[in-house]
Write a structure and sequence with these properties.
- The chain is built from 13 helices and 17 strands.
- It folds into 2 domains: about 280 residues, Aminopeptidase (3-Layer(aba) Sandwich); about 130 residues, Alpha-Beta Plaits (2-Layer Sandwich), CATH 3.30.70.360.
- The strands form 4 sheets. Strands 1, 2, 3, 6, 7, 8, 15 and 16 form an 8-stranded mixed sheet that branches. The protein has a 4-stranded antiparallel sheet with strand order 11-13-9-14. The chain has a 3-stranded antiparallel sheet with strand order 4-5-17.
- By secondary structure, the chain is α+β, with helices and mostly antiparallel strands.
- Helices cover about 35% and strands about 25% of the residues.
- Bound molecules: zinc ion.
- Zinc ion binds next to helix 4.
């Protein structure tokens, strides 16, 4: 009886509780993503004003108030807030960067800023890194507002500039100058994703990034004696640097055990597929990224220079300290005349725990939609803005809640970047549910 009358009441109330039309929302988001990609935010030069205006316009039309900050000319930060009553704790921050890496249009077969849709894919710079992801955050946020979800904590949406060149005028600037505007318990940013072929073939795996490797950029410098190229001598810095570099890269880097990777393998039930992404998250790595030498521009072919330099991009798994790594580099170089200078280093890695309501809500929302999926904590080979919050005790998760093929992930920063059209809608819905479930409970 009670059940029947409750049911009748529910039916009566049905129009007010109407479920969102997720198909229409997905279509709306795809159109927004196209407009966003067409707004060129290449960095350098890194001016994001037009993209910030575009996003501000969308939020304002929804009736959501937007605050804007400018860390430097053209470096605009967009911050929107959905107010909670505060009984649930501190805020959840959805953060994404607006800037993209530059393109070489001659190498693209599509217009990098055309956002053309073909073969079920949206093509263009930033589709995967990270305007597509940012668009899923935007619509999960907008849906909380449209559905009038009674929030017990604030949910923030922030779009930042400058990530692709280190974030000093974007996320890090906000952390330094306006932390009181954010003060989140959780940050959601890029990092992990769902894929059927990236981690292991034929199994749907969603990785939620909980840690990043430590970045160390090194400049190696060999000094010698300049002279005429017709008379070789033994103080040519090019010879010294070349031989030392070949020793540096000759030995493979020993695999170091890292619990997050061990958990990944355990959840997935076997080894990770052999690809450059998976290889990089299982060990510390280094890449030779530049070689600079010669006298004049273009360098003279008949002059032995007095200086030769190289830069090395090192990414360390947690567990190896900067001092240990530098000692290892010097041991391998085996040439005390070559100087080793640290030109950039990130904080020591902090691992965000997975035993939190936000992580569990993400996992639950993913499994509701994809009962066959494996959800696992993971680490990413690159750096993201979300990591900057971890040393402050903020729980930071890197996740795009859509399913993307390995080909899409590996197209990041390349000349055929794309995101599958059908990844967008489900990503919005899963993130919306995870946010709703985390931001409506009381402490
Ligand atoms: Zn990115």
């Amino acid at each position: 009886m009670l059940l029947t009358s409750s049911l009748a009441l529910l039916l009566l109330l049905a129009p007010a509780w109407q479920a969102p039309d997720w198909t229409a929302i997905a279509a709306e988001a795809v159109a927004t993503l196209q407009g966003y990609v067409r707004t060129d935010t290449s960095n350098p030069p890194g001016d994001v004003t037009k993209a910030a205006d575009f996003l501000t316009g969308i939020l304002t039309r929804e009736g959501i108030e937007v605050k804007r900050f400018e860390s430097a000319p053209g470096r605009v930060i967009v911050l929107a807030r959905l107010k909670g009553d505060g009984t649930g704790g501190k805020a959840i921050l959805l953060e994404s960067h607006m800037d993209v890496v530059p393109t070489d249009p001659a190498r693209w077969t599509k217009d990098p800023f055309g956002a053309e849709i073909s073969d079920g894919r949206i093509w263009g710079r930033g589709t995967i890194d990270m305007k597509g992801i940012g668009t899923s955050y935007l619509y999960a946020f907008i849906m909380l507002h449209r559905q009038k979800v009674p929030l017990t904590r604030d949910v923030l949406l922030m779009f930042v500039p400058d990530e692709e060149i280190g974030g000093e005028l974007g996320a890090k600037w906000m952390l330094k100058n306006h932390y009181d505007e954010l003060d989140p318990e959780y940050v959601i940013d890029e990092g992990g994703f769902g894929s059927r072929d990236m981690f292991t073939a034929g199994k749907l795996v969603f990785g939620i990034s909980v840690a990043e490797k430590k970045l160390i950029w090194l400049r190696l410098r060999a000094e010698g004696v300049a002279g005429h190229g017709s008379q070789p001598h033994n103080q040519n810095p090019n010879d010294h640097l070349m031989k030392a570099l070949s020793r540096l890269f000759a030995e493979p880097i020993a695999a170091a055990p890292f619990p997050v990777v061990a958990t990944m393998k355990e959840r997935i039930g076997g080894p990770l597929t052999d690809n450059k992404f998976n290889n990089a998250i299982q060990q510390s790595t280094m890449s030779l990224t530049s070689l600079r030498s010669g006298v004049g521009d273009p360098p003279k072919a008949n002059v032995i220079p007095s200086v030769a330099e190289a830069t090395i991009d090192c990414r360390l798994l947690p567990g190896t300290t900067e001092a240990q790594w530098i000692a290892e580099v010097k041991r391998r170089l085996a040439d005390p005349t070559i100087s080793v200078e640290v030109i950039n280093a990130s904080d020591d890695p902090v691992v965000t725990p997975q035993d939190t309501p936000m992580y569990r809500a993400l996992e639950a929302a993913i499994i509701r939609r994809h009962p066959d999926a494996v959800v696992t904590p993971m680490t990413v080979p690159y750096g993201t803005d979300g990591n900057a919050y971890r040393p402050r005790g903020v729980k930071s998760y890197g996740i795009f809640t859509g399913i993307i093929p390995a080909e899409s992930i590996l197209s990041m920063h390349g000349d055929s970047e794309f995101i599958p059209v059908d990844a967008i809608g489900p990503a919005i819905q899963i993130l919306f549910e995870a946010l709703r479930d985390t931001a409506t409970t009381r402490k």
